[in-house]
Amino acid sequence: MLDMLPQQLVNGLTLGSTYALIALGLTLVFGVLLIPNFAHGELYMLGAFSTYALVGAGVNFWLAVVIATVIVIALGIVLDRVVFQPLDHSSSLSLMIAALAASIILQQTATIIWGSEPRTTPSPIPGVLRMAGFSIAYFQIFVIALTLAAWGGVWLVLNRSRLGLAIRAVAQNKGAAQLMGIELRDVRLATFAIGALLGGLGGAILSANFPVYPTMGINPVLKAFVVLVLGGIGNLWGAILGGLLLGIVEVMVAGYISSQLQDVGTFLILVLVLLLRPQGLFGRVVLER
């Protein structure tokens, strides 16, 4: 069975990179605005469907990815304005219920427009790299590289720009940030736009790797929340490591134990982390704001 290990590790890294890409946007919105945005999975779904529709209309795949991502950014900003901003001073439970309601509405809207049958988008990067002990599609290598590039881009924005300084200030103490003259509305707009960008970009790119259907965002966003707990909420590097770790664990459980226990293993890890290290494997203990 050990001869399968290199291939299982590669499969786990590939799966984990998709979880990490989705979790990046989710952890940013949750870490800064404290919004449990379950509708993030639908932003991912809409990015995939928009790309599918544009490619079907004859648009080049990469141009379709750009257009679809812009569409999802606009939808994400509208989602915040319509659903979350009116509940800005409400409880976390109200925000969670609103997010679930928005998620269902977006799924039903997609079903009305595109139907419930799975769709596929041709891969823009064909071919497979074959090495001793494992093989990996060139497109999957691109997805892993894109995930790392997305992390690097968000890190640069947060740590090397005035906008990032403002976002980090709001994340640490919203009241103090406002007293220092930081416009909370602008920070909120930018945070949701970046989160939607990451969700839409993930869906647009992964539409060439996974079937596209209205409920395709449910499982990834649930796994992304697990990644948040594993990596530590608001921790970008933790989102990457947590996503990769989760992907490897899932593939190992499916490959060496049983594919039926794949999700059981995932949520068992979640429970163990919550019991033993609630701040996440890579997070720090913070005082409640």
TrEMBL record:
Pfam families to which the protein is assigned, alphabetical: BPD_transp_2 (PF02653)
Transmembrane annotation, as ranges: 12-39, 59-83, 95-116, 136-158, 189-212, 224-257, 264-287
A cellular-component GO term for this protein: plasma membrane
InterPro entries: ABC_transp_permease, BCAA_transport_permease
Keyword annotations of the record: Amino-acid transport, Cell membrane, Membrane, Transmembrane, Transmembrane helix, Transport
Membrane topology: Multi-pass membrane protein
GO molecular function: transmembrane transporter activity
Location of this chain's protein in the cell: Cell membrane
Keyword Transport: yes
GO biological process: amino acid transport
CDD domains named among the record's database cross-references: TM_PBP1_LivH_like
Keyword Transmembrane helix: yes
Signal sequence region: none
Family listed: Belongs to the binding-protein-dependent transport system permease family. LivHM subfamily.
Entry protein name: Branched-chain amino acid ABC transporter permease
Source organism per UniProt: Pigmentiphaga aceris
